[in-house]
Recover the amino acids of this structure.
């Protein structure tokens, strides 16, 4: 039954890419009265096509989706972000992805991340590995903190410094370089590919990373939510850290979160 769902999406997603790849956005709407949070008409159209097609084929599965109104978890659910990296799509037409994960009993089963511009279809299957365009991915290369490239934006920089003054300055002295891609799904998959080693974001929703975290886990990486209880993860933005290995996360944790964790353990 799981393989049926994977095969169905393997066939469907390239068709959706072909249909929408060269369409032009005609409407951009500001969400939640925040100028840097936008949705385009293509976000809405792609999500509508996915939900309608999947509902017809798998009526027993519910949806948790970025452009949806229902944010309830269920025993069987699709978690969808029709365009992760909407601002990249709108301004640069690259580094954006269609992300869809399937969860059962609140646990990840498989996830697809489609890097639309590069035509790279990532698939992570829990316990069975990760694939890109059907080719199995190797375990990601292990690197030290000094060898690592960090993907983090200004918004997260400010948020971390408010919570832990000086931590980003310390981190900057320890890493090899830093970038900002602008898509959680793309960034986590590129860690899995070895393009960089660390991703940190202070403002992600579940649909941003639900699929990509499966891909990264299946090649030996980790995704951690340092401050969060999973009970409310469907309703709030969270701080997320993705790393190419558990040991790299442990080194990062000592710089960013050690003081916070010590206070928690002693309270």
């Amino acid at each position: 039954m799981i393989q049926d769902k994977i095969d169905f999406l393997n066939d469907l997603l390239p068709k959706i890419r072909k249909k929408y790849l060269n369409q032009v956005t005609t409407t951009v709407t500001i969400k939640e009265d925040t100028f840097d949070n936008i949705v385009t008409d293509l976000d809405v159209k792609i999500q509508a096509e996915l939900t309608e097609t999947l509902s017809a084929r798998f009526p027993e599965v519910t949806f948790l989706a970025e452009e949806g109104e229902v944010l309830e978890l269920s025993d069987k659910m699709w978690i969808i972000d029709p365009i992760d990296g909407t601002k990249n799509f709108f301004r640069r037409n690259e580094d954006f992805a269609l992300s869809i994960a399937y969860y059962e009993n609140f646990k990840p089963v498989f996830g697809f991340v489609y890097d639309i511009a590069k035509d790279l279809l990532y698939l992570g299957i829990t316990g069975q590995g990760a694939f890109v365009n059907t080719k199995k991915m190797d375990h990601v290369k292990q690197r030290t903190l000094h060898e690592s490239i960090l993907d983090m934006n200004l918004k997260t920089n400010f948020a971390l410094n408010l919570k832990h003054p000086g931590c980003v300055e310390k981190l900057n002295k320890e890493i090899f370089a830093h970038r900002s891609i602008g898509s959680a799904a793309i960034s986590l998959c590129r860690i899995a590919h070895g393009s960089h080693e660390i991703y940190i974001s202070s403002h992600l929703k579940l649909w941003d990373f639900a699929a990509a975290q499966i891909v990264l886990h299946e090649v030996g990486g980790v995704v951690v939510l340092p401050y969060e209880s999973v009970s409310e993860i469907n309703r709030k933005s969270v701080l997320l850290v993705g790393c190419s290995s558990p040991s790299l996360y442990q080194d990062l944790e000592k710089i960013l979160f050690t003081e916070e964790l010590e206070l928690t353990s002693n309270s």
Remarks:
- DSSP finds ten helices and 14 strands in the chain.
- The longest strand covers residues 76-84.
- Residues 260-267 have pLDDT under 50 and may be disordered.
- The two ends are 47 Å apart (CA to CA).
